[in-house]
Write a sequence for this structure.
């Protein structure tokens, strides 16, 4: 808190210091720069004047060739302590007389060339200033004077400026510091009070406190008002949130499902009452990843793999697995978990439910058995029907043989043929009941023909044309009885959908599973040009107890077919068209050539 | 005699004045040596008739005119005459010095006079050694005139002459008699007095030309 207070005050102070110090520095530098420029031109001027005086006084010494007298003139320069060297030269540049500040420290400097128009020339070089001037007498040049001055005058001026600058800036900044201490109080004090209140709110989580108004009508007052309004709003939202939270808890505890929430990291931090009720655990046991304790050790590894995958990708989690109840009994739960995302799309938590599907599963199994029985009944009727015809023929042939002893052999041969048919039918029928428990190699085209043979009577009766188009050597590994039932159901459906003179086309060819797994599969399509399936029915035909054939069907045929297909890891799809005159239905069945075993 | 004020051309000074690259310096040095080889015989020949004391003295005569102010009431001729009385020691030097020169817009001329009376229109009169015997008469004749009297004769300033040439350390110098000059109404510049070896008497109400 005090650090914060210091920072605001310090910022204001530093700002003041910077502004006043900067302005002062700039002004002083400008002033000193101006002074130095003036001083420099003064140096040039005064040296020029000195040169002129020396020159004027040296005229006669040059004309009458009296260097000692010239030296005397030059020695007057001793008063100017910055002049290092002065020399008088004859018009042709020969040294005539000289003056050295320190006696003869260097030989006479030779004269630089002057352009004819110039009467004076000066330059700065090597920390020295040099000036050459023509000595003229009655408009005639009689020689040159050459003066070299050190720049100590300028340097010492610079030094004193630096000291003055330091003193001025130092003193001014001290004064500015003291003044800003007083001035900033008016600005910073109300803000610091507001900051105190804000700190109190965030420390105590007490949103009922209010910042006190400053009394002024400035931005700080606005800030205080806005801050207080914000606190009011926070309190409102707080209570609304609590209410909403309460509603959520009641809802979560009233639903029949087990429900829970997890952090984005996967740590579960909340369960509804029903969870604790069912599992008989405590919140302490369940915290974090403690839920593993109520899982079946056999399924747990897969659960963990899938849960971690969902956490990593943000994909919804869906799985059926058993959970142990308080009584030690495992029950199956369908578990769904959805990610909750923030405005940026980042997963912030997960919300999950476990629905007990044990009863559902049991009833589904019962249904499956019922349908199997019903299918058997239908099959029995169909077999009886199939057998009945050749049987009648046999009876008739036996009767004819008895009546016409001469033709006994012929009738018996015919009866034999009919009996062969019966034998064939019974042999095919047996396939349904030999419910093999192990996979065997199945020849698809052969099996299709066997199933079709069962429906020969019906097909003949309705004058339905069957057009089989099979590729060579199609085999899969599976349970023949179940595949046979799938085929039988799909063919029976087609027959039932067809009027007289209809057409069934059955194609079988090599393909791939259409689920993107790129597994080799065999595709069998059952096409009929029947009335088609209305769009409103298409979605529901795979549901149990859904039937359009009120009198004949149980509504379980396609549902069972689909479950058998799923058991073989296959895919079943349907397309249909109900446009009159061009209506049709196609069931596409994909069966993998070999199943994935785990 | 060797005179430092006489024009000289030395290769060394040339080399120093031109501060250029080493190559240049070397080239100039070589040129200097060549020049010296060609110039030396001429210079040796010139040396014999060169150290001319009277060439310097002729120049000085002209220069005295630049540092002395004559009274406005005096000679109003547009000529400025430098005269020689007695045997002329200058030869052609004096004529060379005055040629084309002027003082205060008055054209300089050199004249030889036979008597002091003839010298009255002159501004400057050089009295030759040959007249040393008649010095008193000559000076007496020129009293009340505005002629600046100059001579080589020893004790010239003592006897009333104005400027006397003396040779000190092989240099031509001069001494001045201010009283004599003052009597003639001539104002000698302080610049001139500064370089004089000796100044006799005192200036009476003399305003220097500068």
């Amino acid at each position: 808190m005090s650090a914060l207070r210091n920072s605001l005050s310090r910022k204001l102070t530093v700002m003041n210091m910077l502004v006043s110090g900067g302005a002062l520095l700039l002004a002083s530098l400008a002033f000193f720069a101006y002074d130095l420029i003036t001083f420099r031109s003064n140096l040039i001027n005064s040296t020029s004047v000195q040169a002129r005086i020396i020159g004027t006084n040296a005229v006669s010494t040059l004309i009458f060739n009296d260097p000692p007298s010239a030296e005397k003139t030059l020695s007057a320069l001793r008063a100017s302590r910055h002049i290092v060297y002065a020399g008088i030269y004859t018009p042709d540049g020969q040294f005539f007389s000289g003056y050295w500040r320190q006696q003869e420290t260097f030989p006479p400097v030779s004269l630089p060339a002057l352009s004819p128009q110039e009467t004076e020339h000066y330059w700065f070089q090597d920390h020295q200033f040099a000036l050459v001037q023509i000595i003229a007498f009655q408009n005639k040049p009689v020689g040159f004077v050459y003066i070299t001055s050190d720049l100590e005058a300028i340097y010492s001026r610079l030094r004193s400026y630096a000291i003055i600058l330091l003193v001025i800036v130092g003193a001014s900044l001290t004064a500015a510091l003291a003044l800003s201490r007083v001035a900033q109080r008016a600005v910073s004090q109300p803000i610091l009070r507001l900051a105190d209140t804000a700190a109190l709110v965030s420390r105590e989580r007490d949103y009922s406190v209010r910042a006190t108004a400053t009394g002024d009508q400035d931005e700080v007052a606005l800030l205080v008002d806005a801050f207080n309004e914000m606190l009011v709003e926070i309190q409102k939202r707080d209570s609304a949130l609590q209410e909403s939270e309460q509603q959520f808890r009641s809802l979560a505890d009233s639903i029949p499902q087990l429900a829970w929430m997890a952090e984005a990291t996967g740590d579960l931090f909340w369960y509804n009452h029903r969870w604790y009720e069912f599992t008989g655990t405590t919140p302490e046991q369940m915290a974090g990843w403690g839920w593993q304790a109520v899982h079946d050790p056999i399924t747990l590894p897969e659960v963990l793999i899938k849960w971690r995958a969902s956490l990593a990708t943000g994909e919804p989690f869906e799985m059926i697995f058993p959970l142990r109840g308080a009584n030690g009994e495992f029950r199956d739960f369908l578990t769904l978990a959805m990610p909750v995302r923030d405005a940026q799309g980042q997963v912030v938590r997960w919300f999950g439910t476990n629905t007990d599907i044990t009863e559902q599963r049991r009833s589904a199994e019962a249904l499956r058995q019922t349908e199997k029985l019903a299918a058997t009944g239908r099959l029995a009727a169909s077999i009886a029907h199939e057998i009945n015809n050749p049987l009648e023929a046999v009876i008739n042939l036996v009767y004819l043989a008895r009546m016409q002893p001469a033709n006994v052999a012929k009738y018996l041969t015919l009866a034999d043929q009919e009996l062969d048919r019966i034998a064939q039918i019974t042999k095919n029928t047996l396939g349904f009941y030999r419910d093999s428990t192990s996979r065997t190699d199945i020849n698809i085209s052969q099996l299709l023909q066997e199933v079709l043979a069962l429906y020969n009577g019906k097909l003949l009766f309705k004058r339905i044309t069957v057009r089989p188009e099979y590729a060579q050597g199609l085999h899969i590994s599976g349970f023949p009885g179940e595949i046979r039932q799938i085929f039988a159901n799909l063919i029976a459906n087609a027959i039932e959908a067809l009027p007289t003179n209809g057409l069934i086309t059955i194609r079988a060819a090599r393909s791939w599973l259409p689920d993107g797994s790129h597994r080799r599969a065999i595709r069998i399509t059952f096409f009929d040009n029947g009335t088609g399936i209305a769009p409103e029915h298409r979605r529901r035909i795979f549901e149990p107890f859904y039937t359009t054939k009120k009198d004949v069907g149980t509504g379980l045929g396609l549902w069972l077919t689909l479950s058998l297909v799923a058991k073989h890891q296959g895919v079943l799809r349907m397309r249909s068209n109900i446009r009159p005159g061009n209506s049709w239905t196609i069931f596409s069945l994909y069966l993998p050539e070999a199943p994935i075993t785990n | 005699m060797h005179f430092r004020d006489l024009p000289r051309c030395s290769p060394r000074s040339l080399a120093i004045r031109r501060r250029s690259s080493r190559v240049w310096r070397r080239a100039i040095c070589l040129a200097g040596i060549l020049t010296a080889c060609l110039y030396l015989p001429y210079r040796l020949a010139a040396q014999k008739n060169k150290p001319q004391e009277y060439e310097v003295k002729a120049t000085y005569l002209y220069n005295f005119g630049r540092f002395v102010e004559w009274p406005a009431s005096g000679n109003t001729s547009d000529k400025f005459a430098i005269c020689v009385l007695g045997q002329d020691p200058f030869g052609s030097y004096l004529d060379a010095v005055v040629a084309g020169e002027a003082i205060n817009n008055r054209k300089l001329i050199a004249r030889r006079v036979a008597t002091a009376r003839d010298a009255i229109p002159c501004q400057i009169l050089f009295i030759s050694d040959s007249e040393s015997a008649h010095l008193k008469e000559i000076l007496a004749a020129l009293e009340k005139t505005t002629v600046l009297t100059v001579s080589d004769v020893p004790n010239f300033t003592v006897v009333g002459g104005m400027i006397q040439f003396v040779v000190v350390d092989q240099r031509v110098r001069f001494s001045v008699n201010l009283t004599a000059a003052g009597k003639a109404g001539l104002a000698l510049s302080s610049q001139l007095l500064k370089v004089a070896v000796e100044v006799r008497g005192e200036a009476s109400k003399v305003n220097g030309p500068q």
